[in-house]
Amino acid sequence: MPAVARIDPKDVFAPEEWARFSARSSWLGLVLVAGAWGLIFAAGAMFVLWPNLLTYVLAVMLIGARQLGLAILMHDAAHGALHSNMKVNNWVGEWLCAAPVGARLASYREYHLKHHRFTEQPEDPDLALSAPFPITRASLWRKVVRDLTGQTFSKQRGAQLFGGRKPGEVVNSSTSHFLLTNAILFGGLALAGYWWAYPALWLVPMATWLPLVTRLRNIAEHAVVNTKDDPFTHARTTLANAIERLFIAPYWVHFHGEHHVFMHVPCYRLERMHRSLMDKGYWSRMRIAPGYAAVLGEASSKPVVQLA
């Protein structure tokens, strides 16, 4: 099928507006990467200083959400939007964002740009993530249980480390870079006297909360959007509240409708661009949800079939 239609930014924004939205900063992306790692270590320190069940659960959720945050910043790097210098963009995107969570920037970029080119068409490599929806509420809960109990993680990491991908499946992960960066992280924690923090405060979030919030992200972005010819309908924007942004949707990832129309805009400019589009009346053309609860309600709205 032909690639999806594109909208010329000049048809939507004045030249000075578009220049502000599309500008790549030489420092904002680096601040976001540093902030992600800072919150990861701060959440871990919270549990070390006040060890109890509540602080551990909070730490797992915060760290897992920032692991997703690293993947989101890798996504920006895949679009060349993390830094104004492409060499810096690619190095930071690979070694500080992608590799620690088991991804690979170069292969992800190829895969992801194909997703943008053929969004919700048969050639879309992400179509399998949205095509099954809506599903029943029971099916959704089974997926949540698999995520939180580590079953999803075990299946994905097993395929990454030992093979077992389906024929033709796109490879977006790197075993060697993942093992190297994780060995450095483990070694640093061990030298500091906290070797146990690597499995308890890095692997456990990666095996539980990260798969769950990654699934929620995928559902919110494209499930049940009823894509039409208008590029403004190709993805959903979810109006996440502060709690959702902290634990589910970091770094403006919930402005996915805006990202799909103008995919090279850095993540840190999406919220301002969203407000501009709302002021211009584009809300009437977009798929906008009031929050993640509403998205999950729609995505799990398939009725249960009662057998006679």
TrEMBL record:
Residue intervals of the Fatty acid desaturase domain: 53-284
MF (Gene Ontology): sphingolipid delta-4 desaturase activity
This protein's UniProt keywords: Membrane, Transmembrane, Transmembrane helix
Keyword flag tRNA-binding: no
InterPro entries linked to this entry: FA_desaturase_dom
GO cellular component terms attached to this protein's record: membrane
Transmembrane stretches, start-end: 27-50, 56-74, 178-197
GO process annotations (BP): ceramide biosynthetic process
Protein's recorded name: Fatty acid desaturase
